Amino acid sequence: MMKELLFATNNAHKLKEVREICGKEINILGLMDIGFKAEIPEDHDTLEGNARQKAWFIHEKTGRDCFADDTGLFIDALEGRPGVYSARYAGEDCSFDDNVRKVLEEMKAFSNRSAHFRCIVCLILDGKEFLFEGEVKGIILKDGQGKGGFGYDPIFLPIGQTLTFSQMPAYLKNGISHRGKAIGKMVAFLKSEQ
Ligand code: IMP
Predict the structure, then answer these.
(1) Pocket residue to mutate for ligand 1, from 40, 73, 96, 103, most atoms within 8 A of Cβ
(2) 70 annotated active-site
């Protein structure tokens, strides 16, 4: 039987990516698919803390098997910022473009452009918790390149690639990205449990 899992997100970009990564064997529902509209708390200072908080909150509200992810962009020259605060780096209600602008401004002074994305996925299955991790290293460009993806994708050039996450086709991003790796581990785990 096809496994059905609820993804604790309201981010349509993430949902699309995760559906592509999981393929046809797992039916991924987003919160919009079940009409869940309440805000999800996310007030920890680690990715693990936030992923666990979001997943358990949705599990407790819906009783369903579910998972949540939390991601940060960690820039070496900025001592790991924006890190766990990546979503609201330029302030409450800021846009992806506002965040990108703030990072590019702060990076003007630095020649070391190294950074990495890190993603933690927390799965709640039959009331038990499982964590999966994925990371990708790259550099921060001086200007945004490309229109695809979301968040910091236009300024992130993964190591060994010639295209930013925004410029590359989705299958290529998903094959090397932080989220692709973490969700890939979750899918392998789910298959091994069947
Ligand atoms: P979240 O807390 O997991 O939703 O992620 C925090 C922020 O990190 C998002 O609002 C995006 O700005 C950024 N982010 C997360 N995943 C990605 C990605 O795959 N590419 C670019 N930016 C991302």
Answers:
(1) 73
(2) yes
Q: Is 40 in the pocket of ligand 1 (CB under 6 A)?
A: no
User: CB under 8 Å to 33, separation ≥6 — which residues?
Assistant: none
Reported as a single tens digit per residue, the pLDDT across 106-139 is 999 999 999 999 999 999 999 999 999 999 999 9
Surface-to-core class of residue 191, CB atoms within 10 Å of its CB (0-12 exposed, 13-18 middle, 19+ buried): exposed
pLDDT digits (tens, 9 = 90+) for 36-53: 988 899 999 999 999 999
Distances from the Cα of 116 to the Cαs of 2, 17, 79, in angstroms? Answer: 34, 19, 12
Q: What is the pTM of this model?
A: 0.96
Distance (Å) from CA 165 to ligand 1 centroid: 12
